[in-house]
Amino acid sequence: MKVAVVGATGLVGGVMLKVLEERDLPVSELLAVASDRSVGRMVVFRGKEVQVIGMEMAVDMKPDLALFSAGGSTSLEWAPRFAEVGCTVIDNSSAWRMHADKKLVVPEVNGDVLTVEDRIIANPNCSTIQLVMALAPLHQTFRVKRVVVSTYQAVTGTGIKAVRQLENERNGVEGEMAYPFRIDGNVIPRCDVFTENGYTKEEMKLVLETKKILDPGIRVTATAVRVPVLGGHSESVNVEFENEFELDGVLKLLKDAPGVELYDDTSSDRYPMPMMAQGRDDVFVGRVRRDETQARTLNLWVVADNLRKGAATNAVQIAEKVLSLRNGSLPVG
Fold it and tell me: CB under 8 Å to 24, separation ≥6 — which residues?
């Protein structure tokens, strides 16, 4: 199988290459694709150097599968071009997520919506993925009515420029700023740009994508905050259900949910933190407790590696699902 990774020199693209290796997809030929300024550079895949090529050449080579992590405008322009030559595109940008005719997929949650005919498949936002992973098993049983979520998002969610800003500030070095303010020793209550309703695009992604993946009837409100952490997003989640629940039942559902690790024992200080999620694909859930101010309401703390399950791993899992639909030979999840 000929596989293209578009944006191969970026943070997420690099993790995509790593996850492709780890999960051992049947890649017979890898195309490392990036913008013109990166053409000719080398990336490493399965211990061998691969030279980066441009978009036009990659389309001409007609890959079977393309994993995109190159920004929304690039995806809008090039994903249809790849699809026209028979390639299945899995796109990590926000470009296609809310298109009515495009699937927005977290394989453990709604992988069954995929078909072999899908040519452009959207990978959800990193914060949305970990949120719906925790909510999905509970929604099936208790029916989620309303969600209030506050995020604590690592600088890797912004990109390499933000990583350099944080590292420079910690080392006392003047450098280029990814944010309008210092991030080390600070938190910034803004992820992405502000929209007309006063919410940021990141916050509205959580609202709209959760409704599309789980249930359009769920009410979601969000506050997204950038924190001085290199990797791993955290979320404080308050969820109101239509049906009453017992805490033991909630814990069992989370414990049994695929891709979710229940890490919840306050007596021995067991609760998820970004440092434990880095480099791992599970979504960690802890601090599970009833909201004592309102009926049928629960508090959760949810943590995941935003570059892996929040981006690269989820995209590769979608690829596995596509391949399993084609030949029935590969597991999913």
Answer: none
